[in-house]
Description:
Layout: H1 5-16, H2 22-42, H3 49-72, H4 81-100, H5 110-123, H6 125-144, H7 147-157, H8 163-170, H9 174-195
Helix pairs in contact: 2-3, 2-4, 3-4, 5-6, 6-9, 7-9, 8-9
Amino acid sequence: xxxxxxxxxxxxxxxxxxxxxxxxxxxxxxxxxxxxxxxxxxxxxxxxxxxxxxxxxxxxxxxxxxxxxxxxxxxxxxxxxxxxxxxxxxxxxxxxxxxxxxxxxxxxxxxxxxxxxxxxxxxxxxxxxxxxxxxxxxxxxxxxxxxxxxxxxxxxxxxxxxxxxxxxxxxxxxxxxxxxxxxxxxxxxxxxxxxxxx
Length: 198
């Protein structure tokens, strides 16, 4: 059942003014769980009911933490409340996956994560216009780089692997890996600056 904007206002008022959470939990609990399951599927993680429940609980904690800060950031002129809650549920799920296992998000799914960050930035497009443009440019430039450079940079900056872990994966010494990373980073920076005409 779809909730109309008037009902959304009532639910928000209950949370923000009366500090009552029951309406939001009742109306959006199913949506949050569906978003968590979808995110698990996108990153290739098997769905376990207990994990979904744990993450769902964490989503509600985020929504009600710090005097409902996340709910107070909601702007009905840009998005429906359901869309805002889905964004928070998605980001919370990604954060929880990374917290439990930083390497759980495989390289083939990095693009999904990058696009999600881009989507979150676009929600606040006016405030982040320049950042959105630069992020898009970096993503495009990274995709055009030599496969080895791209792979090493993604391991460091998308997967957050250590120097030792990257060295093992590519079969090089730590010193060689550091050199490859430094040179790839310089090449990426130079290409981005060329595109930005700096």
